[in-house]
Amino acid sequence: MKRLHCLLVCLMYFPALTLAHAGLAVTVPEHDAILERAPTLVHFQFMADMTITNVILEIGAGPRTGERIPLRLPRNSIGQSTAFGESIDLNLPALDPGTYVLTWQATSLDGHLLVDDLSFSIIPPA
Questions:
Q1: Taking phi first (over 0 means left), then psi (-120 to 50 degrees means alpha), and beta for anything else, what does residue 66 get?
Q2: Nearest-CA neighbor of 51 among 112, 101, 9?
Q3: In this structure, are strands 33-35 and 113-122 parallel, antiparallel, or unpaired?
Q4: What span, in angstroms and rounded, lies between the C-alpha atoms of 55 and 117?
Q5: 107, 21 Cβ separation under 8 angstroms
Q6: Which residues, given as ranges, of the chain have pLDDT below 70?
Q7: pLDDT digits (tens, 9 = 90+) for 7-37
Q8: Stated pTM of the model
């Protein structure tokens, strides 16, 4: 009975802790964005501190579909990703007009794994 009372008190006084769930809130560029200029970075805004642990940038359409474009995460001296926080920016290489798919993986402090992708297109100048 004492444990149940303690649990109820915790739920009542710390609802943010019991309802908190790490997830992605926003990316820039947005998913399926059509851009007039190539972005120089991708911005992630999470709902809690996360570490991006893996990222792959691929060409998403045309004759080179699936071709990977080198993209590196910042890492510390022992190889761990330092792309950490609620707000994370990843630099992109120079990109030509085309469609791209960025697949990413992130881990929250409590070990939950998020895997998702976003695609965006860069239109050629008129």
A1: left
A2: 112
A3: parallel
A4: 9
A5: no
A6: 1-22
A7: 444 444 444 443 445 688 899 999 999 999 9
A8: 0.79
